[in-house]
Every structure is written in C-alpha cells, then in structure tokens.
Design goal:
By secondary structure, the protein is of the alpha/beta class. The protein has 4 domains: 161 residues, MoaB/Mog-like domain (Molybdenum Cofactor Biosythetic Enzyme, Chain A, 3-Layer(aba) Sandwich), CATH 3.40.980; 50 residues, Molybdopterin biosynthesis moea protein, domain 2; 84 residues, Molybdopterin biosynthesis moeA protein, domain 3, CATH 2.170.190.11; 74 residues, Beta-clip.
Length: 403
C-alpha cells in the first residue's frame, strides 16, 4: 500500500465525525467543556446606571463650577438604592456599585469635595455622565455572548454567571481508551530486565487527551499475543469509548499483532502507512462509532501522531469551533537538509528576536526514540515532502506544542 499523505490521512480520521450529544451541566462543572449551543444573556448588566466611584451623585448643572455648594439629602450603597429624586442644589452620598438616583446625571468623587455636615463644596467641576456606568454598558438581555463551539475558560464561566445561567448546554466529553502493547514494556519504578524498556507513551497520551477535554480510560499493557490484544480492544468497546488509541504493534513484524486483532474484531482499516516522519506506521479504522488510531511504539512517533491526529479528532467530537492546529510563520534558526518523500515534523525550540521575529531551532538529534529532545521542544517544524535544503533565516512554518 502506498504511503498516504498527511492531509489525506487526517481527512480520513475526521470523515463523518459529528459532535457528541448535548448535555446540561451545572456552571461550576463546565470548565473546559465545549458549548453545544449559543448562549444569550438573561439579563441586562448593569441593570441600571451605577456609580463607578465613591462620591456624590449630583446634577451636573449644579456642580459645574468650583466652590458650588450642595445639600446632601441621602445615601446610596450597593444593593440599597435611594428612593427619592435629586433636585436642584441637592446631592446624594453614593458608593461604588450604587444605583444612580433619579435626577442625578454625574458623580463627583469624594476626593473632589469638602464635606461639612449635610453640606458639600465642589472642588472639581462635574461633567454629565462622568463616573457613571450606564445601564447595559456590559451587555443587554438577549445579547449572544458565548458561541457554540467555544471551549469554556474561567472567564467564560464568570460571564455565563453574570448572564444568569446556572447551567450550560455542552457536548459530552469524548472517552479515549488507551491500550499499550508489548512484552518489552515495564512500568515506571521497576527494574527492566534484559531487552525491556520503561513504559512512557501512555502518560503523555493520557495527559494530551485530558488537556483537550477528553476523559481517558487506561486499558493497561497487553502482552504480545493475539488473545491479549483482542481482549484489550473488546474492553475498549465495552467501556463505551469514542476513541481507541493503541501504541506499539503497528508495524509489519511477526510480533506486531494490533492490525490483525483490529481486523479480527471487524474494524475496517482506512490506512496503515503515512508519508510522514516520525510516525510512518500509523493505522486508522472504525468500529461502529468508535474511531481507532494505532500509534507507533517509539515515544516521539507516538506523541507526534497523537498530536496531529488524536487531538483534532477529540476536538471534532467535542464540537470545537476550531479543530485543526494553527500553523505559525517563523524563520529557520539553522540550516536544514533536503527532505525526501515524507512530510517531516522536526522537533524545535523557539526563540523571539528583539524585532519580534519567531525563530525555529531544530534540535540536533531527531531520532524518534529520544524523549529528552521531545520534552525540550516547543514546536514541530513542518517540512514538506521533497523540500530542498534551506539555510538559516529561510521562512518556515511551525506547530506550537502545548506548554
């Protein structure tokens, strides 16, 4: 089978994917969920004209001159409006957040007055509208302020609360089941035997999926037998996973059993080789509504493929407004060689010059097993197939990795 271009592979992964069902959840549980519908304000904020400062509510015409004297006829505090009307020559003591009383059209801050009993003397001329927050200056009832597809931030939650929404309509979080394969894998904290390595891929994959708003299911490590691999796939189905991620066993060796197990379980494979580096032996298929991504076992290949394919799939299922990674313009920080037929994703550090130019510095060693270089990288430098040799300073494109 010919190597599939990265863009075609991503299109296959996302083909036919629809956002998961809507559910209503309490506001205090909605952080980083994705809105399923537009949300409009249920109230006007502020509902009435409010004072932005501590001072005195006055008629601007009465306080337009320095040394004008006014009589204080009452007081306003937040939540305690003044019932009367401010008339000629009158003022009302007002505090921040207090409703501006009828008749008043300005606030003179307390530092610009001298108070003597029930009389104040103006020391800074009033200006109509000054230090007053008009009704609806923030938003009005019916304004759509939160849009479908928004992944809710802490600021969005504050806005939703101010709009008077105790619950929000969101998409159900995708469930991502992760199954590692390989007799050579042992858990961190143990002493590897001959030919064994410490399992690391799953920790990055679980964290990456959770960062994107998914719930994860750990299916553990399956031994290199068809029975163990098949059992893991069946557990993913039984758990109700929306996505099954496998790591390892994606190549074509005698002990790479994942593809056979997937086929035996009725999963239609869309592809199993991609024209990319790292990550050539990646697989994708579907079993009913469950999308399956078979990642290579090398740690860097596993992570890069998950970043490029699992993340957009999670976003699509979540109903996110933006699914694809955004490419940023940069310049090369050092020379790079010519590329072959595979799209290259070089791990790179980023620097910002004094003039604002973003510089991408590929790490020295790009082997797909080098975790230290992956951890040190801040971006993937994208090199197109058959890209010619490029010198430092040449424009390039990067995909910023999660911070």
């Amino acid at each position: 089978m010919a190597l599939m271009p990265v863009s075609d592979a991503l299109a296959a992964v996302l083909a036919g994917v629809k956002p998961l069902p809507e559910e209503m959840i309490p506001l205090d549980e909605a952080y980083h969920h994705v809105l399923a519908r537009d949300v409009a304000a249920r109230r006007t904020q502020p509902p009435e004209a409010m004072s932005a400062m501590d001072g005195y509510a006055v008629r601007a015409a009465d306080a337009a001159k320095v040394d004008a004297q006014l009589t204080v006829i009452g007081e306003v505090a937040a939540g305690r409006p003044f019932a009367g009307v401010v008339g000629a020559g009158e003022a009302v003591r007002i505090f921040t957040g207090g409703v501006v009383p009828a008749g008043a059209d300005a606030v003179v801050i307390q530092e610009d007055t001298v108070a003597e009993g029930k009389r104040i003397t103006i020391k800074e001329a009033a200006i109509a509208g000054r230090h007053i927050r008009p009704a609806g200056v923030d938003f009005r009832e019916g304004d759509v302020l939160l849009r479908m597809g928004t992944r809710l931030t802490e600021r969005d939650l504050a806005l939703a609360a101010g709009m008077n929404h105790p619950h929000l309509p969101v998409r159900r979080r995708p469930k991502v089941a992760i199954l590692a394969t390989g007799d050579e894998l042992v858990m961190p904290g143990t002493t590897p035997g001959p030919g064994q390595i410490v399992y690391s891929n799953g920790y990055a994959l679980h964290a990456l999926a959770r960062q994107e708003g998914a719930d994860t299911i750990d299916l553990g490590i399956a031994a290199d037998t068809l029975e163990a691999t098949t059992a893991g796939i069946r557990r993913a189905r039984e758990s109700g996973a929306d996505i099954l991620i496998t790591t390892g066993g994606a190549s074509v060796g005698d002990h790479d059993l994942v593809q056979q197990a997937l086929r035996d379980e009725g999963i239609a494979m869309a592809f199993w080789k991609i024209a990319m580096r790292p990550g050539k032996p990646m697989m994708h298929g579907r079993l009913g509504a469950m999308g399956v991504i078979g990642l290579p076992g090398n740690p860097v290949s596993s992570y890069v493929c998950a970043f490029l394919f699992m993340v957009p799939l999670i976003r699509a299922l979540s109903g996110r407004a933006v699914i694809h990674h955004l490419r940023e313009r940069a310049v090369l920080g050092r020379d790079v060689g010519a590329n072959d037929q595979r799209e290259d994703y070089l791990r790179a550090r980023l620097e910002r010059r004094d003039d604002g130019t973003l510089v991408a510095l590929p790490v020295n060693h790009q082997d797909s097993s080098l975790l230290a270089n992956l951890a040190a990288a801040q971006a993937l430098l994208v090199r197109a197939p058959f890209a010619p040799k490029a010198e430092a300073g040449t424009p390039c494109e990067v995909l910023r990795l999660p911070a």
